[in-house]
Amino acid sequence: MNKMFAPLLCGMLSALVLGCSDTVPVANMLTATPFAPQGHNIYLRGEMNDYAVLSSYLLVQHGEDGYCTLAPLRADWSPYRFKFAAADWAAGSNFGFADPPGVLREGSAPVRLNPNSRFEELRYYPKHDGVYRFCISVDDDGQYWGSVTPARDDELSLIDEIFKRKATSSPLNDADETSLEETEPVDVQ
What is the spatial distance between Cα 151 and Cα 147, in angstroms, rounded to a whole number? Predict the structure, then answer.
């Protein structure tokens, strides 16, 4: 019985997750072209994900913007240090800043990247809690450029939407909060 139920449950959960999201990027994640110079897939690696190699941070082609991925950030945790790099940090696929100081802020110009970086981490200062788009683009001269911008609503997955709603909701007022000690006992008969 369990062998029949498990695939059905997995299929229903997949349909639910994909069906709940009306965003194109979530559906395109399965068919998107990854950024893979030198044959190495490139990931966003930094303080937002403990420098881990996670499929959710794979840079994939994003129209005219180059190759991008999304990451939720909290403003009070800034600056975020990060790089764009392959799983093995290989030369030619390890992108840090080319020109110091390598700092990005909301509305700032893209930063020129060095694909043979060693220790040159970029820094980003988000103004607000939210989901941000991290991108690499290549110009006509073969120069790499890094940018960070707030993600558009139509780019967000279901999980990103939840994070954004939580980040933008206002905290409860002190008057709205009640503890168990302050509530009236209920007489059950």
Answer: 12
Chain position carrying tokens 């007022």: 173
Residue 157: give the domain boundaries: 26-168
Task: Give a yes or no: residue 123 inside a domain.
Answer: yes
Whole-number Å distance between alpha carbons of 83 and 28: 24
Residue 136 domain-assigned (yes or no):
yes
Q: Is residue 16 part of a domain?
A: no
**Tens digits of pLDDT across the chain (189 residues):** 444 433 333 343 333 333 333 333 444 445 689 999 989 999 999 999 999 999 999 999 988 769 999 999 999 999 999 999 999 999 999 999 999 999 999 999 999 999 999 999 999 999 999 999 999 999 999 999 999 999 988 887 655 656 556 666 645 444 444 444 444 555 555
Concatenate the DSSP letters of all residues of 7-71 into one string: HHHHHHHHHHHHHH---HHHHHTTTPPB--GGG---EEEETTTTT---GGGB-EE-GGG-EEEEE
Please, are residues 109 and 48 in contact by the beta-carbon 8 Å criterion? Answer: no
Give the type of residue at 115: P
